[in-house]
Write a structure and sequence with these properties.
Keywords: Membrane, Transmembrane, Transmembrane helix. It is built from three helices and no strands. With about 110 residues, the protein is mostly helical.
Length: about 110
């Protein structure tokens, strides 16, 4: 009877150890997957953001030149484009909580 209990407890320990090892391996794979998704998303965001930023700069310069010709002064054109950029910046600042909520909800779906 004592041997039977000993064998049963040994089997239970083996099963417990296998469970812990399997869980550890699963967690390592899950962490790797989450890191891969996060890094991939960051690289794509950086690459796309860089080109969009460059495009916006060129549009702003072209708009400033065109408005400068319309106003008769390049300085006034640059001021107008700068003012428009500031207005967009203030709007985005005022909407920051909505943007945070949107980003968190999207990230929660991924993770």
């Amino acid at each position: 009877m004592l041997n039977s209990l000993n064998e049963t407890s040994d089997k239970a320990m083996d099963i417990g150890e296998r469970y812990v090892n399997t869980t550890r391996q699963y967690l390592k794979l899950k962490i790797f997957q989450q890191l891969s998704v996060s890094i991939s998303m960051m690289v794509k965001l950086l690459a796309i953001g860089a080109f969009v930023f460059i495009g916006l700069i060129f549009f702003a310069i072209a708009g400033a030149i065109e408005l400068g010709e319309a106003f008769g002064s390049t300085t006034k054109g640059c001021l107008a484009v700068g003012g428009i950029a500031l207005v967009f910046g203030v709007i985005i600042y005022l909407m920051r909580k909505r943007i945070n909520t949107l980003v968190l909800n999207k990230m929660a779906d991924k993770f």
